[in-house]
Structures are given as structure tokens and as C-alpha cells.
Amino acid sequence: MIVSLLLTLAVYNLDPVLDVPELKGAVYSATVQALDGTVLYERNTDLRVVPASNQKLISCAYALATLGPDFVPKTKIWKQSDRIVVESMGDPSLTYAQLFQARKDLHLDGRLPVYVKQAYRIGVPDSWEVDDLPNRYAAKVTAFCFDQSAFEVWSENGRPKLIPGSFGVKLVRDKSLGSGKTVYDPLKKILRYSPTLPKSKIRLDTLALPDPDEAAASVLGRRFYPVTTVPSRAPDLVIKGKPLPEILKTCLVNSDNNMAENLMLMATAKREDISDDPYGHGRERVENFLFETVGVDPADIRYFDGSGMSRHNLVTSRAIAKLLQWANNQPTAPLWKSCLASPESGTLKTRLKGIDFHGKTGTLDMVVSLSGYVKNAKGEAVIASLLLNHFKCSSVKARDIADAFMKSIAETNDGPSVALFYGYEPRHSDPLNPLVDWNWFGGSDHHGGPSRSWSDRGTQPTHAGLY
């Protein structure tokens, strides 16, 4: 038995993948284990580091365990003689089209005030960086919202157009801006645009709504008022969101920050009134879930937000591996794995081709993470978590190292993988290649860089909480 274990440990000698110049002076934590928890490889396994979007594994596992696989979010609407009343416990899948249809179904003329009771109204989560706030991936967090709290900027005949509406955002022509550029300030609610926008109809950017709940209320009526009570009678209309498995898959595959924050808060609000301190309640509930249900060592994690945007999140690779092991032993394991990212889809669209991997990516500035289930050459599934911090190389090269780590496991059979000995050689990727990080198209973000496409709304540039 001891000899067998030693042989297994030798097979998963992944040090050559990590002992490369690009990681000199970096901080990282790595764990590989069998599905039963047997450790196959570890490196700084008890070191707490920033997880980036690997945080979403925690939030989504908590939401699935708390809400259940059959959960469907609902938005309730009452039409009174003098007002419209809305109750939202959170639904990140709610769309503008659904709200507009509700307006038609209830024969609303848009003149009545809208009173909204919502489980939480965060605004900007504490510790998020201010320069990220214009972007869709850093939208304010509110229970009542639509289209993940985002709107689009289009150019049509050389003029800017906001879709599905302006929602209080003022357009200002700015001659100082270069051709085709836009600059958005969500705090002042001003979008400045270049006098020379494309004549063709083209989407320029996807940005964060300045006030998501007020924007949602404006679809139904004239003015937004927060309230704590709703009519005692049955609602006149109930809008059903997408089933929880669909929301989880969108969140994890596309790395949607807004969905992750909402999922964590929705799950917490199911058990208690969290309106006085939503994140305080959420952090306590999630950590209790990890410590008491999953069995994570309390020393292994500091949970701060749902998406991983905050650098106040800290976790060990051992804790991530423990969570993945626990999830694999639940009745919902097949559903859980189907919600994870896999090669050639979502944030793994151009990565790990040919590797049987299901998991989660993560990137912030100087942070790259990759964790999940990977099958080796024998067809045996193992759990692997690699969290890289404080490297000086580009995020693209750091992701190459993370990919090499998983490929080495996948190629392992009776002996060390060839990948362990070829000497890590990062591919020469153009950081602006649309097939490397995210989908680019014409236009600019608020930093003056290219804009993201609507098809990849869950992604964001390397200066922020990337997938």
C-alpha cells in the first residue's frame, strides 16, 4: 500500500511545471488529489492567496446547496390604483424584454410610481476598484435588475445610441476624443463620445447601468421608491426567471460577476432578512457552509465577495480541492459538473483543447487560477487546483503555465508525462489576439482600449477581475 502510494505521488511530480523563470518570486498554491481526497501532489497547499474568479466555485456551490436544483427565481408585480408594487428576492436572469412584456400585459401607461421591495440593494460592493465601475462586469448589485445590470452603446449613422434605453445617462459630444472612442462616467451618468463614430450600425461597448433597480422600475412606471412591504393579496403578475442550473452554468462558463454576487445573496436571503447588512450575512452563511458542511479548515479561507472581484478574498488550493471533492459526492454532482467550463467553451474557448477538464478559470492583475476535475491518460478523474499570485509575467503566460499544469496531469499514465520534461515553454500569444483572452471588436472601453463583444459579457480586460 505504501509503495503504491509513493508511486502515485511520483507520477504527479508537477514541480517542473511550476519551477520556471516566469514564476520566480511569485506566490502560489497547488493541490492535486484523488476523488476520495488522497493527496497526489501539493505545493504550498496551506498558503492563502487571492483566487480571482475561482471564488465563483464557492458561491455557486453554496447557492446550489441552499436553493436546490429545482429553484426558479420569481419577480412579483402588483398593479394598484395609485402605484405599481414589485417584490424581488433576486433574479440575475431577468431581462428587459420580460419587464417590457409585463408592462404590456398589465396595460401600464408608465405614469404610476413604482414601489420596490427587494431582498438586498448593495450598490457597489466594498473593496471593488473605482476604475472598474463603468464596465458591465463591475455593475452595481441590486436584487431588482435586468440584463445583468448592463446596457449597450451602439453607433448608427455616426450617432451614439443607448440600448435598450438611456436610463438617466446623458450623451455628451466631446471633440477631444479620438475617432470612434467613448468615455463613460457611471457616477455622473455621462457618456462622452467622439464626433467621428462609425457610420455603419455597430455595437461599441457594453457598460454598467448607473442604478440598475431604478432602471428596472422605469420600464414599468414613472419613479422608483424603495419599500419594505407589499400588498397582502396575490400578485397580478409573476415573472419567472431561468431555472437555477441555467443561471449557474451561465455564471460559471462565462464567469459572470453580477450573477455570482446575486446567487450568493439570493441564497442567503432565502434563510433570513439580510437587508440590514447583506454582505455581512452572506459572508457568515457562506463560511458556515464551508466549515460545517463541506469540511474546509477555517484557516484556509477568507470569503469577501461572491464573484472574486475583491482582492480581500483569500483561499488555499486545499480548500478549493475540498469543495470540489464535496460537490462530487453530492446527488447533484452530474448537474454541478455540467455547469462548469470545459475546453472550447466560455472562458476556456481557446484553452486546454483535447483535455477532459471541467472547472473554473480566474484572472485579476497578477492573479491566475484554474481548478476543476481533469482525467489522466488512464481515464481516472482527479481534482486539481492551481492558484498563481504576484507573478511579473503577463497573464497570458501565467495562464499558459496553468494550462501546462493541467495538461501534465491529463497526459500522465504509468510514468511522468512528457510535458514534465520538455521544459516549460510558454506559447507566444499576442495579448490582444481575440482568440486568447476575450472577444474584441471595434470601439473602446473607458480606458481607451478595445471594447468587449456582447457575446462575451461575462469577461473583462486584464486590468480588472477577468475570468
Low-confidence stretches: 1-10, 414-466
Radius of gyration: 23 Å
Number of domains: 2
Instruction: Provide the residue-averaged pLDDT.
Output: 89
Question: What amount of the residues lies in strands?
Answer: 15-25%
Strands of the largest sheet, in order across it? 2-1-20-19-18
Helix/strand-derived category reads: alpha+beta
How many alpha or pi helices? Answer: 11
CATH-wise, what's the superfamily of the largest domain? DD-peptidase/beta-lactamase superfamily
The CATH architecture classification of the largest domain is 3-Layer(aba) Sandwich
Helix content, binned percent: 25-40%
Number of strands: 22
Main sheet attributes: strand count, strand direction, barrel closure: 5 strands, antiparallel
At the fold tier of CATH, the topology name of the largest domain is Beta-lactamase
Which shape, going by the Cα principal axes? globular
CATH class of the largest domain: Alpha Beta
Report the end-to-end length measured between terminal Cα atoms.
41 Å
